[in-house]
Amino acid sequence: MAAELPALPGLLDRDQVAASVAVIAAQQEPDGALPWTTGQHTDTWNHVESAMALLVGGRADAAHRAYDWCLATQRADGSWPMRTVAGTVEDASAESNMSAYLAVGVWHHWLVRRDERFVRRTWPAVRAALDFVVGLQLPFGGISWVRGEAGVVDDGALLASSSSIFHALRAGLALSELMGEPQPDWELAAGRLRHALRHHRDTFLDKSTFSMDWYYPVLGGAVVGAEGDALVDARWDDFVVPGLGVRCVDTNPWVTAAETCELAMALDALGRRDEALALLRDVQHLRSARGGYWTGYVWPDDAVWPREETTWTAAAMVLAVDALSGTTPGSDLFRGSTLPREFPEIGLECGCADRTVRQRVG
Asked: Which InterPro entries match (predicted)?
C-alpha cells in the first residue's frame, strides 16, 4: 500500500498489508482456489473476496489464478457448487449470492487495473452467473438464497445475501455498459430487488440476530443516506462492542473481524469515516503474529475462537483499509460512485403499486 496510509494512525502500513496478503496467498491451492483455510472448503463468494485483496496487495498473478479457477469451475447454468474441497465437490447446491459475486470481483479488477482484455475474458462468466441469479428472483423481489442439489429452488430469500446480490447486479450492469451489451432483465431485477430491500425487509427469512442482516442493506448500496443512517443507528448498541469490534450474533459474546470490517465499509459509504476508523482500530487485537486475522474473539473467556486465520477475514481487512485510505482505484467499490444509480421499480408483485418513474439511489 502507498503513501496515504500514514494518515490513518493505528491502522496498517504497507508492510503490514503485504503480510496480510501473504497469508492469503500462502493458502492458495495449485488450481487457484482460495479456501477458507488450508485444507478447508472453497466457496465462490469468499474466494472472490480473497482475490480482490490479492489484487490490492499487488499480487496480480495470484489474483488472476483465482479468477481462472472461477472460469474453470463454473457450471453450464452459470452457478458454482456451494462447497469444493481440494477440487472435489462436497455440496453441489447453488447459492445465489456466491454465484453473483464474480461480477463484483471483475468490476473491482477493472477499477484497479483498467484491463479491458481481462474484462472481456471474464464477461461471459459474469453474464451467465447473473442470468442464473436473476432467474431465482421471488415474486416479492428478493432472491432465493439457494437451488438445492435436486434442483429445487428454496422459496425464501436472505436479507444479507440479497443485499450483496444487489451490489453484484450494479457491478454487472456497469460491466455490461463497458462491454456494450445492455442487460434490461438485470436492470428490472435490480429495481425490484432494491424495492424489497428498502420496503419489505420483514418478508425476508428472519436472521435478525445476525449482524450481517443489520448492515448489509447499506453495504450493498440499497439503503443509503439518512435512511441508511437510521438503519445503522437502530441496532448499533445490539452489535457494537466498544474497544473490541462487532458481534456476529447479538446474543453471543463473540466479536468477529470480518463483520467489523464490513460494518466499517458500510459506515464509510455513509460518510461516517471516524466511526469506521475507530472500528478498524478496535479489531486489530485479532491480528496474528504473521499478519493474518483470527476469525473471532470470545471476550468472557479471553479466547480467540476459532483458531483459524481465514483468508476471507484477512481479505475483509485489506479491502476495508484500502477503502478508508483510498490507496487503490478499487477503494470506491462499496461507496459505489462508479456504479449505476438508477433502476426502474416496475413489474412489482409485492402488493405495492408499480412505480413507473426511475428511483435514484442516494
From this structure: 6-hairpin_glycosidase_sf, 6hp_glycosidase-like_sf
**Residue range 34-69, pLDDT digits in tens:** 999 999 999 999 999 999 999 999 999 999 999 999
The whole-angstrom separation of Cα 361 and Cα 255 is 31
**Residue 10 belongs to a domain:** yes
55 is in which domain, residue-wise? 5-347
Q: What are the start-end ranges of the E strands in 269-340?
A: 296-298, 303-304
Question: Does any domain span residue 298?
Answer: yes
pTM of the complete model beyond 0.70:
yes
SS3 at position 346: coil
User: In total, how many domains does the chain have?
Assistant: 1
Tell me, what CATH number does 290's domain have? 1.50.10.10
Instruction: Report the b/e string of 195-215 with b at 16+ CB within 10 A.
Output: bbbbebbebbbeeeebbbbbb
To which residue does cell 482505484 refer? 329
